[in-house]
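Quiz preparation item.
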């Protein structure tokens, strides 16, 4: 009987739970919203319920789950199993692993959501088989993860991969970290929404209203592009330029085999999003003679990058 694992991708607005085998085959899923301002205990109760629902969807008993992995948005302490700070959830020093284990039984392994997503892509997706890879995840913010010698590299302090706070325009807009010109302040989905709203004369706001959205989601971006919205096109192209600068810097510093670009926009737009980023990045490589040996591709696991990465985290952590 093969060993099974539960994986949870816990974001600021939603989460998804999956049950998978050691090869990454998804057997059952369940997802739900996260509510900002809800008490941590309420959210953890909901996570536990959805893991049970995913197990039911997979037609397996919870007793067959060897371990549970969780990728949580924000700063985490994996050794203690604590979410140190998750602004989008309103969490500070929440002992997620201990509380969830008490509710369900199996060991719980905790990691940062973007680091866990690149583990997923390295284990089962675009970066499978690579020894050195970098993940760049574009969403509300921009995060990253580093694969070194086939394993996630968390850095000296556990903070490796905060590439969203690489400064690419010193006099640029103010970032949430308090500095100016971080790539997150120039190319995240939040930054793109800010620039679209500031520009005016865009169809984006009408599309958001039509779809009942209060944020410029990836589906809204895709619809605006289909409608040939000039503002959206210009804002996206500017973001792609800065992401290309970031990717070029990453290659010159780290020399990876590949860069995986993930997040909702990359998932929705695919090569249309990644292609221009790769073009700018390659123009910045210091060794252009063999530039195409370094692959720059979008994530292949879609909604499951984080959850399957959490399963791999659980698999390797017990």
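Solution:
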């Amino acid at each position: 009987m093969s060993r099974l694992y539960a994986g949870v991708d816990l974001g600021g607005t939603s989460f998804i739970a999956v049950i998978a085998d050691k090869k990454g085959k998804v057997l059952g899923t369940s997802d739900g919203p996260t509510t900002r301002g809800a008490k941590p205990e309420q959210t953890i109760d909901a996570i536990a319920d959805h893991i049970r629902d995913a197990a039911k969807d997979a037609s397996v008993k919870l007793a067959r789950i060897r371990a549970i992995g969780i990728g949580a948005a924000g700063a985490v302490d994996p050794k203690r199993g604590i979410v140190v700070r998750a602004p989008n959830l309103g969490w500070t020093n929440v002992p997620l692993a201990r509380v969830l284990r008490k509710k369900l039984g199996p060991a719980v392994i905790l990691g940062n959501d973007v680091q866990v997503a690149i583990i997923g892509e390295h284990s089962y997706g675009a970066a499978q088989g690579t020894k050195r890879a970098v993940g760049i995840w574009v969403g509300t913010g921009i995060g990253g993860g580093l694969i070194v010698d086939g394993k996630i590299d968390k850095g000296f302090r556990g903070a490796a991969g905060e590439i969203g706070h690489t400064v690419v325009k010193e006099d640029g807009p103010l970032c949430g970290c308090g500095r100016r010109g971080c790539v997150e302040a120039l190319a995240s989905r939040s930054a793109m929404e800010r620039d679209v709203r500031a520009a005016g004369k865009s169809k984006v706001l009408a599309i958001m209203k039509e779809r009942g959205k209060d944020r410029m989601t990836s589906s809204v971006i895709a619809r605006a592009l289909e409608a040939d919205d000039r503002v959206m096109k210009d804002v996206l192209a500017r973001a792609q330029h800065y992401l290309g600068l970031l990717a070029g810097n990453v290659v010159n510093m780290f020399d990876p085999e590949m860069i995986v670009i993930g997040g909702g926009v990359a998932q929705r737009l695919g090569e249309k999003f990644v292609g221009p980023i790769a073009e700018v990045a390659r123009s910045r490589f210091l060794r252009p003679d063999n530039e195409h040996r370094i692959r720059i591709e979008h994530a292949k696991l879609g909604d499951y990058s984080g959850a399957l990465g959490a399963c791999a985290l659980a698999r390797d952590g017990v």
